[in-house]
């Protein structure tokens, strides 16, 4: 099996991505490293542990990362995911605790344990991965794949007019990461928009008689209502699409390779992902950008995650 390490800030769409990863029999989730982002670190760690419990995967170690962005404070996304990040439905926390090891150190250690084999998928702000890179810049050499949910490759942001949440939450971390990795696979917000899930389909799937569907119906209720009110008939599960691609990278996929860098300053553009579409900078193509993914396969992967 392919070892998979997931850096995540659960988060309702993170939860769906994690269920997808656990359900995939070609991959073995070797750990969850947890970032702050959608909500504060105490909640994202608690949610990661709860998700493992619900998935029957209490064997998967959970490592807490760093509570704040590297340089400047940032606002969370509690208005999307609920104050507790899982829809404010009073879940009983898992009895398990996070490991003592810091997420950044766990990333480095696991990159040695699974050297040359490991796929690292980042579903939240890139703070932990930036710290790991500062501690050991040779990290990229030991990864087989590195995939990020983040960015807005044509400037259609979701948290500012031009920036996407995961990058805008900690732009310095994103800058460190995209500068250090020779190659990153990027599933951005615009790919998410191109692969919406119809609310009426999602509601049908979530009505199924499985523990995972019941749990997911509960934690996603608030965000799905918010999404229907503010965005219309499609629901956008960014992290789930990124994970779909991470798990099934072959066939039915349209990608482009381009240089990508992060805007750190600017009155309106901080946190933007600047894609050099016309290759004017001479910088190397450091990213593979997801443009299109087989929608039927994505939806089948979502149903599989829910135990359908
Ligand atoms: C990203 O931001 C978060 O709110 C989601 O979990 C996802 O990772 C989408 O912009
Ligand atoms: Ca996320």
From TrEMBL:
Superkingdom per UniProt: Bacteria
In alphabetical order, the GO MF annotations are:
hydrolase activity, hydrolyzing N-glycosyl compounds
This protein's record includes keyword Hydrolase:
yes
Which SUPFAM superfamilies did the record assign? Nucleoside hydrolase
The cross-references to InterPro entries, in alphabetical order and at most eight, read:
Inosine/uridine_hydrolase_dom (IPR001910), IUN_hydrolase (IPR052775), Ribo_hydro-like (IPR036452)
Q: Which CDD domains match?
A: nuc_hydro_CeIAG
Residues forming the Inosine/uridine-preferring nucleoside hydrolase domain are 4-299
Question: Does Hydrolase show up as a keyword for this record?
Answer: yes
**Which keywords does UniProt give here?**
Hydrolase
What is the name of the protein in this document? Nucleoside hydrolase
Q: What species does this protein belong to?
A: Stenotrophomonas humi
């Amino acid at each position: 099996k392919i070892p998979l390490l997931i850096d995540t800030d659960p988060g309702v769409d993170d939860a769906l991505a994690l269920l997808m990863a656990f359900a995939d029999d070609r991959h073995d989730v070797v750990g969850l490293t947890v970032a702050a982002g959608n909500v504060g670190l105490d909640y994202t760690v608690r949610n990661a542990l709860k998700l493992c419990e619900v998935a029957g995967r209490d064997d998967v170690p959970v490592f807490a990362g760093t509570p704040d962005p590297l340089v400047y404070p940032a606002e969370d996304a509690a208005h999307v995911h609920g104050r507790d990040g899982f829809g404010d439905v009073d879940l009983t926390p898992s009895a398990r605790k996070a490991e003592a090891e810091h997420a950044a150190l766990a990333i480095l250690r696991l990159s040695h344990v699974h050297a040359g084999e490991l796929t690292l998928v980042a579903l939240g702000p890139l703070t932990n991965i930036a710290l790991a890179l500062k501690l050991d810049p040779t990290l990229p050499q030991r990864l087989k794949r590195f995939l990020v949910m983040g960015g807005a490759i044509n400037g259609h942001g979701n948290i500012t007019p031009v920036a996407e949440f995961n990058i805008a939450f900690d732009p310095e971390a994103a800058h460190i990461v995209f500068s250090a990795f020779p190659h990153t696979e990027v599933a951005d917000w615009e790919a998410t928009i191109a692969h919406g899930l119809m609310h009426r389909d999602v509601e049908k799937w979530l009505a199924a008689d499985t523990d995972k569907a019941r749990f997911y119906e509960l934690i996603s209720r608030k965000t799905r209502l918010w999404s229907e009110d503010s965005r219309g008939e499609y629901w956008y599960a960014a992290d789930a699409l990124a994970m779909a691609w991470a798990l099934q990278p072959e066939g039915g996929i349209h990608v482009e390779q381009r240089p990508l860098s992060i805007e750190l300053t600017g009155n309106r553009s901080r946190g933007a992902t600047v894609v050099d579409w016309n290759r004017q900078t001479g910088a190397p193509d450091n990213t593979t950008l997801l443009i299109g993914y087989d929608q039927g396969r994505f939806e089948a992967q979502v149903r599989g995650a829910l135990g359908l």
